Amino acid sequence: MHTHTVKAFDEEIGDLRALIAQMGGMAEEAIRAAVVALRRHDLAGAAAIVAGDKAIDALEMEVEQLAIRIIALRAPMADDLREVVAALKIAGVIERIGDYAKNIAKRVPLIDAQGDIEPLSVLPAMANLAIAMVHDVLDAFAARDAEAALDVCERDRQVDDFYNSLFRVLVTHMMENPKTIGQMAHVLFIAKNLERVGDHATNVAEMVYYAATGKHMAERDRSSFKMTEA
Amino acid sequence: MHTHTVKAFDEEIGDLRALIAQMGGMAEEAIRAAVVALRRHDLAGAAAIVAGDKAIDALEMEVEQLAIRIIALRAPMADDLREVVAALKIAGVIERIGDYAKNIAKRVPLIDAQGDIEPLSVLPAMANLAIAMVHDVLDAFAARDAEAALDVCERDRQVDDFYNSLFRVLVTHMMENPKTIGQMAHVLFIAKNLERVGDHATNVAEMVYYAATGKHMAERDRSSFKMTEA
């Protein structure tokens, strides 16, 4: 801790940003790899993703310790405090995105249907949309770019539309192939996890917006039946 | 902020604990009420739960602001810092439990099957188990009781067993009643949400244990296929 007390505040914030960027890159890659492992029924790949989640968790702990240390030692005010708190919370959200990747990977052994069925074939496109949101919102955090954060929020609707369409496709598939219901239930959870990744990117966007501007993003129009909070 | 600087640290921690207890009570009640609304197909009750979640969110923001203020103004060390950080994180978890209640409530209008079908009839018992874990772990936090926190962790297995059994019951029900698949998919998500409430109580227990002892709870035995991370 002593070496940190002589570090400039900006340097410490730079360390925080670097940790967040590293965590974000790992979580994005984990989601991408989990969907690839699913389509290939790659059990070894899936197991590696599950094991790799520990590294993301460890980084979250590093962010937390550094953020608390900065707040306690420097007592930053206003913009600086908002940014440190945002980093702390963003790390928590990225950790959860890592958990979603792990959860998807854990379902790989339970789904032996190959990628030629419709519900599985659309998952990669949905995953890519969600991952791109995560990537862009972390760029927005690094650049303190409130406008870019707003843009990420707009894109959450596409992920939701994907999910709602996939939900209907899955239910239809289950009705027509009752023997696959158990497996398709796992696919349904995977689709839900990806939809949640989009929600988390949106939450981060709200944090980035607040950190950059000191104002809360205006409550956006949300359908009262949107199923995205948990 | 000025009035707080003259408050004793213990008094500020007391305020934090009181906010956490209040949040926890609201989240427990929201989960309980959501399952009741589901069984009664009570749309007004469900809408009230959705609306009430904002109050839990507002309390989380209060906890966050108070915790950050304590860290910045008092630079607490060791035990005291661990406790403030635990409060900050526990508030985040309770907020998520509130989101699960809201999510369950939002599904009420989508499920018109009455409580006489088996999958719906077991949900209240599962909800009660999960809620009791939340209640007891917050008591453990208030009492700095590491042993009580360990006890809560042990009980998560019961909630998981409930969920795994319910998953099979739901899949069987879907196979035998294909027309209900859409609705039963929503019930499946509700069961998953309740299982997640148990997981979150376990996470809080780990935070309470660490705050009380300064040691991380030993990694407990977890099946590598346990589906509880997301």
From TrEMBL, chains A, B:
One of its GO terms (biological process) is phosphate ion transport. Keywords: Cytoplasm, Phosphate transport, Transport. It is found in: Cytoplasm. Gene3D superfamilies: Phosphate transport system protein phou homolog 2, domain 2. It comes from the Bacteria. It holds the Pfam family PhoU. Signal peptide: none annotated. GO terms for cellular component: cytoplasm. Coiled coil: none annotated. Belongs to the PhoU family. Plays a role in the regulation of phosphate uptake. Homodimer. This is Phosphate-specific transport system accessory protein PhoU.
